[in-house]
Amino acid sequence: MTDRVQACIDENQDRFVEELKQFLRFPSISALQQHDGDTRACAEWIKDHLGGLGFEAGLIEIGGKPIVRAVRRGKSAKRVVIYGHYDVQPEDPLDEWKTPPFEPTVRDGILYGRGATDDKGQVFAHVKAVESLLRTEGGLPCEVIFLLEGEEESGGDALARYVKQAKDELKPDAVVVSDSTMYDANTPALTYGLRGIVALEFIVRGPAADLHSGAYGGALANPVMVAAQILAACVGRDGKILVPHFYDDVVPLQDWERESFRKLNFNDAALAKELNVPRLHGEPGYSTLERLWARPTFEINGLHGGYGGQRSKTIIPASATAKITCRLVSNQDPVRIRDLVVEHLRSVCPDTVRLEINEFGASPPVLFDVNNPTIRAAQEALRQGFGRETVFIRCGGSIPVVSTFVEQLGCPVVLMGFGLDSDGPHSPNEHFSLDSFRRGTKAAAHLLQTI
Ligand code: BES
Ligand code: ZN
Questions:
Q1: What is the DSSP letter of 145?
Q2: What's the confidence (pLDDT) of residue 3?
Q3: Which of 153, 413, 421, 426 to mutate to test the pocket of ligand 1 (most atoms within 8 A of CB)?
């Protein structure tokens, strides 16, 4: 990257951060209907911002939240799609935020606010990279198409539908995604695997209304107890998933991968401390990084039922609800796994209650080959931006549309994350280091020049 581009990024940093704060002020929570207006306003804002940089920018409406599409030609015939999402997770629990989630605040070089790292801050690094190239070089080195979706966090499929429909006109040479993480604050990383996901809920229904537990206790099944028993039949105490055939299609870790994870010297004790748990836990026979990146999980996201108020209330609850997500790894098929889980839930549920199961989104895992010139260009770009060598990692999270990019576009996908798991995405006090924002902007600019 030329010194001029670097200098431009450094000189304009304060303004870039102020603009990022504007982006962060929109409560673009895609999961909550009451925020549909805010989500659309956010899409309009970033569309107009890109329009202001000379992009031909518009909103694509194909059902679901609008997709921001912004195109600007470049000097070479190469075309790069930059993907990100402008929607964010709900902010709850609100009283755990030190400063309000949608009033972005900088403390000690760190920007706090919902979406700071996931994903507005990372998207904005690319936007400001493009702006810096335009200011210093007078044009872009290659054609850039921003595709920013508004329903990544809520399981929508508008962008996947759009990509399928527009693949012949899109035909990029590469897709660049910054919605993942670095290995640690000083180690940039390229991600070559993401987990897939299956989401569902089950509701155990018992009596028509909560009952007096003295009058009726002993006569009928307690729905909350049944839910607990069903869940206990899904995962053993050792962390092994008990759903029959769940692991059948899991690609075993290769020796080189186990070795490469081991060389990262992951510190279990430090993670336990950071997360404030007495010790870590998970499937036996696998290291923590192996469990996070290359093994599937069965998680309870929420378990509700009965009385949760003060002191005691003697009831048999009418129902209990469990929200579940399974993270999947290659080559697990989300539909097959969903069917296996549903079948298992039904088979372990006693006939003393009624079981209702509702299915939500499902998306496949991805695992790609990193042996291509685009990945090498990204490695060099990260070296330029962060001044450190890049490591190759997998990530435990999911970015559902990435599998559609891989399937439909047939070009290399670069997962170049600037965030950290410890930035608190989806948690209170989400944040993004301004250092990473600046370095990420430099890396993004460099990548466009060399891709
Ligand atoms: N940025 C995350 C995905 C991620 C998390 C990548 C951690 C790497 C490390 C993304 O915005 C996200 O949260 N995705 C959801 C998808 C789900 C709602 C279908 C996820 O993983 O829970
Ligand atoms: Zn997220």
A1: E
A2: 86
A3: 153
Ligand 1 closest atom vs CA 363: 19
Task: Kindly name the residue from 87, 91, 149, 423 that is annotated as catalytic.
Answer: 87
| Tens-place pLDDT, residues 391-409 | 999 999 999 999 999 999 9
Phi, psi of 402 (to 5 degrees): -60, -35
Tens digits of residue pLDDT in 363-393: 999 999 989 999 999 999 999 999 999 999 9
Short-list 186, 152, 84, CA closest to 415: 84
To the nearest 10 degrees (0 to 180), the angle between helices 13-24 and 434-450 is 100
Report the percentage of the chain scoring pLDDT > 70: 100
Catalytic (active site) residue 152: yes
Per-residue pLDDT of 203-258, as tens digits, reads 999 999 999 999 999 999 999 999 999 999 999 999 999 999 999 999 999 999 99
State which of 399, 420, 422, 423 you would mutate to test the pocket of ligand 1, scoring each by most atoms of that ligand within 8 A of its C-beta: 399
Is 179 among the catalytic positions? no
Domains by residue range for the chain, with CATH: 3-194+366-450 (3.40.630.10), 196-250+296-363 (3.30.70.360)
- The DSSP symbol for 353 reads S
Residue appearing with tokens 């006090």: 429
